[in-house]
Design brief:
The chain contains two helices and five strands.
């Protein structure tokens, strides 16, 4: 897993612009999504737009006509965090 960009096997800390809250998500494979436990598949709308992004970048999701902005604060490898 990379540590300098978001990819499969990374943990990413995000600032959710609408709430001002920081949340960490683990990014995994297609069948590994468990949003209630902050685990996202790379195929989810948020997981997909985060791929290959770096610290400081802001991405946008549009889910059910709700637009949300997220800024990447930190990227770690899952194996180093858990």
């Amino acid at each position: 897993a990379p540590a300098d960009v978001v990819g499969i096997g990374t943990v990413v800390e995000l600032l959710q612009h609408s709430t001002g809250q920081n949340t960490s998500y683990s990014i995994f494979g297609a069948w590994d999504s468990d949003p209630e436990n902050n685990t996202l598949s790379y195929e989810t709308p948020l997981g997909y737009v985060l791929l290959a992004k770096k610290i400081g970048e802001t991405v946008e999701t549009n889910i059910d006509n709700t637009i949300e902005k997220w800024t990447i604060n930190k990227i770690s490898r899952y194996v180093d965090v858990k």
